[in-house]
Amino acid sequence: MPIDLPFEIGQVLPRKKIHQLLGGQERNGISTPVADSWILLFTGERGEEFGYEDSWEGDVFHYTGEGQRGDMQSVRGNKAVRDHKENGERILLFKERPDHNQEFIGEMAVRGWRNEPQKDMTGKIRQAIVFELVRVE
């Protein structure tokens, strides 16, 4: 683990504490703190009820972008994730546990992205942005 990461891999803490330390929007799946060069990604089982289908495939984590209704756009958090390397920002991935605390999975980088049909939170099919993330060693 790089010494300059703010958390240890596997560390578990309340989301509120993460935001107290790093800032960012407390309710979004993609949180972009203004003060630092971090992008915080949150995933978990409850995301499916809002139209998000995140999953691991080998060493690649498929992360559904933000937007609960209609086609997703490359704006706000989605744009930040897509352009993180160009902007010198680092992605930190957290997974919600059954007790609603967050487990730090590690630092990730975007390998690529695609649009794919997925249901939104209303059950309608839309074009979702899915990021292909890999661990940064």
How many helix segments? Answer: 2
* Helical fraction: 10-25%
Taken from the alpha-carbon principal axes, the silhouette is: globular
**In whole angstroms, how far apart are the ends?**
7 Å
The secondary structure category is mainly beta
Overall domain count = 1
- Using DSSP, what is the number of strands? 8
N-to-C SSE string, H for helix and E for strand: EHEEEEHEEE
* CATH-derived topology: PUA domain-like
Fold blueprint:
Layout: E1 12-13, H1 15-22, E2 30-31, E3 38-43, E4 55-57, E5 60-64, H2 76-82, E6 90-96, E7 102-119, E8 125-135
Parallel strand pairs: 3-6
Antiparallel strand pairs: 1-7, 2-3, 4-5, 5-8, 6-7, 7-8
Describe the structure.
The chain is mainly β. The chain has a single domain, classed as PUA domain-like (Roll), CATH 2.30.280. Helices cover 11% and strands 39% of the residues. It has two helices and eight strands. Strands 1, 2, 3, 4, 5, 6, 7 and 8 form an eight-stranded mixed beta sheet that branches. A hairpin with a 6-residue loop joins strand 2 and strand 3. It is globular and about 40 Å long. The protein starts with 11 loop residues before the first strand and ends with a strand.
Short synopsis of the structure:
The protein has 137 residues and is mainly β. Helix content is 11%, strand content 39%.
